[in-house]
Amino acid sequence: MEPPIRITSLTFNSGQEINVDADVVVLVGANNTGKSRTLSEIFFTLSRSPGALLTDLFALSAVGMERRVDADGLVKWLEANRTVYQVSGEQYRRIHHAGVGDIHENQVAWGFQHDRIASLAPFLLRNLTCGERLGYVGSPQRLDYNQHPDHPIQVLATNPDLMTRLAASVERAFGQHLLADSWGTNIRLRMHPTLTQAALSYESSDGTLPPEKRLEFDSIPLVEQQSDGVRAFVGIMLTVLASEYPVYLLDEPEAFLHPPQAREIGRQLASLPDSQQVFIATHSLDVLLGVLEASGSRRVQIVRLFREDAQTSCAILDPGQLDQIRSDPLLRFGKALDGMFHDRAIVCEGDSDAAFYSLFARDIRGAHPMFTYAGAKHRVHKIARALTAVEVPVSVIVDFDALNDKGLMTRIVESVGGTWSAEMTRHWKILDMALRAGRKPATHQDARAALDSLGKEPGQEWTKMDRDAFDKELLPTNGWSGAKNQGLHAVPAGDASASAEALLSQLAELGVHVVPVGQMESFIKSAGGHGPEWVVHVVENDKWSSCAGARQLVYAALGLPHPRDYAPSESGPGATPEGPATPMLPDSPRLRCGHTSQQLF
After folding, report:
1. Stronger pLDDT, 450 or 197, i.e. the higher one
2. What is the pTM of this model?
């Protein structure tokens, strides 16, 4: 049956209006941007009487709603989906809904002729908050003849198909069987890892259980006695299964759930019929990815909220880009899109790079950056473009050898909203020609620099690792292969060195930061190893905290001044290993991207 209403637009208090052309709308963004308030204000706005003033709105200023049927059509929909009955002596029939109560039939015609639906809102919109879902899992009484259900479990107890779907979702999420125990005066939901519904079967001539059977059944744990996660999951599923609503408003469905269950609840919400429109406010990438996995042909909108000057605005991920996210395994199953829930994102090549660079941002006040990784340098632009498409401020950190591929660097620059200029091409050509020409043999000055770079004390033992690192620094290398480990140090002096420094500076202004020493491991060469092994070594031996070069690179990626520009702190809290006070990320205009309509890849 045609749903009676559909939300068609949202107008935020910044004046920005968006068309809602989706079955599932996922609201994401950093903290305090208005995700939860947007849901509650949708309900609040539509439930006000026509002409009533709207005050104390945090995120929205208006909600557009389409009436798809007339008042008579709505009554027919209510007859099919709610309890409609006549009370003796009353002129109008009553419409009853579990957990809501009654309204008279004459109120339908009055409430459905305006752009708001007033007292009809609780019958057509379901606004489910975090706390409410935990209380849904109880043991309501069994219904007597002519009683109307007032609890979702009472509804599902009379519908085997819905109970089967609830049980299937619980088994998929928690690996346990859901059992409905209808013996006695109450309906109880139970869970067990091996027992099935057949365990509660018993033939009784008078409808009662003998004491030993009652004890046997009572030994099976009740759902209401399970963890908050189990009760929250079952509470949500009871809400969406027990009664059909044209519009669901679900705030933080991931609350109390572990990541696998959060992803499963996303799948379940995306699997609702097309007649049901779902708005989800979430801080969980798992919920978002679950929605994308299960949505199939259902239309999905990802809306990222941000807040400036006490006003909320948003960016919408283009449908074409959304389809490409669905088809990319790293984006669908990885954590790269977690940047949508942070103030800004730093995209690195590998997971070890992201872990190392994130160390230097731990104590920065006023910011919650996300350090994520692309899996390889040739994927960096894909991750960056997916995030900038919903206007997440993005910076990139890549190793020096990424400069070897001008096409790749052009794509990376464009992915963060920049343009590869003719001047950058000129500098790149000078650098490329110089490195391809090779490198001169090492000098005594190079040998002294190589020894200093090992970071060893004069009395320390000379190890094979030291010798290998020393030889690697001094042996003549062929251009770009040497630059991979040595960065600017491998660039010949003169025009090539000047062009390399100018190119790195221009890239940094656009948000693309190149490791000047070559690669992450070149910051602390005395650590040895590579990737995770190297990171573990520098952390366990606290070598990272005094690495001024890496700190400077991270601060630049976050838009902060050079670390040395901070005044020394007199107290311990907030002091960095070098002594300056912990910086605070300055307020900066939201990154506005000029490529949201381009292809994601």
Report:
1. 197
2. 0.79
